[in-house]
Amino acid sequence: MSTSSRHEPPQWVKRFLGMFLEPRLLEASLGDLEEKFRSKLQRNTPHWKTKLLYTLEGLGFMRMARRPRNAGVQTTINMISHTLLFFTRLVRKDKSYYLVSLLGLMLSLASFLFIMMFINDELAYDKFHERHPRIFRVAAHLKSGDVEFNMAATQFPAAQALQSELPEIEQAVRIFKTDPMLHYGDKKFQERVVMADSNFFDVFTFPLIVGDAETAMNEPASIILTERAAKKYFGDANPIGKTLLVDGQQPLAVTGVMRNVPEQSHIRFDAVVPLTLQLNQWRRETGLEGRENKWYWYGAYTYIMLKTGVAPDRVRAKLPLVVNKYFPERFRPDAWLELQPVADIHLNSNLAQELEPGGNILYVRLFSIVAFVIMIVSSINLINLSYFKITSRTREVGIRKFLGQNAMRIIIQLSIESILIGVTAFVLAVILCQIFISDFNLLVQKNLYLWTAPNGMIMGGLLALIILICIVAVVRPAIRYAMQASSYLLLQQYRSPDKARLRNILMGLQVCFSFVLLVFSFIISRQIDFFRNKDLGFDRHNIVLVNMNEDLWPKLEAFKTELQKSKDIVEVSGGPVPGTGCNTWRFVPEGGSYEKPVMMPFAWVDYKFLSALKIKLLMGRDFDPEAKYDSAWPFIINRRAAIELGWLDDPLNRTLEVFAAGTTKIMAKGIVIGVIEDYHFESLHGPVKPIVLTPDTGFGTAIIRVSGTSPESGIASIGALWKKFSDKPFEYEALDRQLERLYDKESRLSNVILFFTVIALYLTCYGLFAMSSLLFSSRLKEVAIRKVFGADQMTIVRQLYTRYAVFNLIAIVVGVPIAMYLGNLWLQTFQYRIDLDSALFIKAGVCILLAGLLSVSYYLARVAFSDPVRFLRRD
Amino acid sequence: MKGTNLGELEEIVLLVVGVLFDDAYGVAIQEELRKRCDRKATLSTIHVALHRLEEKGYLESRLDGATNERGGRRKLLFRVTRSGQKALANARDMRNDLWRAIPKAAFANSLVMK
Hints:
The complex is a heterodimer of chains A (875) and B (114). With 875 residues, chain A is an alpha+beta fold. Chain A folds into 5 domains: 2-69; 90-124 and 358-498, no CATH class; 137-330, no CATH class; 503-534 and 744-875, no CATH class; 543-742, no CATH class. In chain A, the strands form 3 sheets. In chain A, strands 1, 2, 3, 4, 5, 6, 7, 8, 9, 10, 11, 12, 13 and 14 form a 14-stranded mixed β-sheet that branches. Chain A is globular. Chain B is 52% helix and 11% strand. Chain B has helices at residues 8-20, 26-37, 43-56, 82-101, and strands at residues 59-64, 75-80. The N and C termini of chain B lie far apart (37 Å). In chain B, 27% of the residues are buried. At the A-B interface, helix 3 and helix 4 of A face helix 2 and helix 3 of B.
């Protein structure tokens, strides 16, 4: 007995059948089912199979459900089928209304879904690490004079120091990133490789498919490939034990294959190599004074994992101890470390040397606002229009009541109709998203996929939300009408007392929100234009950038001389391309202390650098290949550097010494021969930094100014010359185009916001349009009477318009401070930004006003120019 | 007349009810169908057939015979009525007539005539 009682037939099937079968049949069928169930169990059929069979056979009896035992169930079924029938007739009668409102709702739901997917994806970064709440990145900050250096990386020894000083730390792991070429046979690809300490896989959750995470990093000369990379080199063959060559020399044995790095990771790579390999190499190259032992070079991304239950603030409080004990003495007062939760890096960290360009929490907020506005606007449409739709069905409700339908039924009927529209719109929206997801991905540079568990949650939530909104939209008028006596409702004149105030407030909100969004998208596009057109301190036009390669490096001089001969080429130079930034070096000005060097970006440039880029020389002279400066290097500094060094009045002929990278040795002594105007050698996201330039004839990228009158022929002559020097294909880039790419993220996201703004605007106008048809039709008779008494048509038009104009104006005025607040919030993130001027607001205001008035014009004209006789004859 | 025709499954079920005589109910009929006719039918299929036969007046039913295995529920037991017997006899006669009407030559080479 005890075994059989463990396996009872599923109760719900019994209960379900109980609702639908006649008592006689119920007893017989349940008896039969149970008898079979027990005999199956006795014959040792697996109990899951027995249960399944019971369920399937039991549900088969549903076809005998002639008449439900429960009268309520039957009535519900009847009612639903009646509602559906009635609804299809309503839709057929008023196709355009239902089609347009369905489209509007679909658009807003699809937009909402897209935006939520984007936000959700942004927020999910690095949450796939199982221990992510305990993982932190150590960021380093350093101040030199007025300039702050905020770096995502720290010094190599920092991990060791942190771990020995802070017992709260369970693991510390360093990452060094390189992009070497990997060879296997004749297959050769450039890969993104992270060189990491051997506990990499203990801290981060990157599961191995093949190989053992414990031992895979034991040998320095090993490599763990991602699935994708492994496939590239080995196809379907087992890669374990195969050997890859790094840059054609160092062999690495494949010890594991890991799953591809998730999209939502702030570290992206194709392979992991033990860091020891690199450290050993440095040790060999520079003896014991290898770079990894130095506290000067910020080259290692350092991550720590705290012990369970340790509050991060406790560790943060102790970080200054590490700085004061280990950092070089001169850095100590102005340096500090920061702990960044790994899941915050993508959205909240924007430091120098980030591993991947991050997202921005601001955009997540802005997008949420846009989604919210779209949802509100379309909900208001739904609420206002349902109200009028129900009002126009007074007589129908009256007849229903007269025939004995009770108030509850009527409310349910109206709610179901409303929900049907909502659910249909939702289904269409999901289909729309599925169709356009690849375009949206292109727009936001993501790889979103609709059918994932988190997106499923969003869709579920959205469906619940839309059903709720649909119910809210009808419940108020439905109750009002359903509770009236049928005799009132059947009177032709009956109108429920109109709550115009609430409706006007809702419409005002729509206009106000649309206005805010419009202003905002104007601000964004203005700011991006500003980026494109701001004077950068150099002339970005007609500059062609050509990357040199190993064929050209030995013959650079010849290449340059040949180029100069072409009449379409104005100037040839080379050096760091503006916009990309420069490395920072440590300088000691004359009379300065070796203990407190000044950190400044330092760049080697070719002789004609200033004239090629048309950078303005303020004082002194340009580099001269003929001039001799004894052993000193000639330096040209920018105005910012002169200010930084306190030499603004008299900077010429002063000396500067520069430390060799990562050491305490002085590399060179320089003499300032000129001062240039500040130019933006980094993107406009940050302020202009000081910079020191020194001449060097070798360069990686040629900066060539072609003639403004015929840039094409200039490029063609470079291409022709290139063919004489190298058999690789000729590739070039225009500087102005490359600079625009610095603001790609802003312009892309602004396009997204603009796009959704247009949708919100459309929804608002559609709402106004539909409402005007309903509102004006109630004034037909009034207008007719006025006309009969001799009112002039223009007066009537003016009168009807005035109300809308005033109403829109109020909404716009309310929107101004909101738009200003949001606009400033966004602009704050830029060092160089536009000012918010009133023209912007006026432009947006006029747009909204015109759009609003246009939307109401169609029906307004129909009313104003109507033939009064038609409407007066009716009664 | 539409309502009195015997479907193929109905005919077999009616016969099986006859075979089982006084113990013809859902599970027993299903079992018998499986054993004798090598036919798999779900309980609900059988009940649908039984229900239709009862409506046509070929079967009569009563509730009786509760057992522990059935969770104390009674069986719906069926019995062939007089008109049921007549319907079966008619069906058989019709078939026999048809068989007899087949010319010998038609099935001459087939296995059926062996």
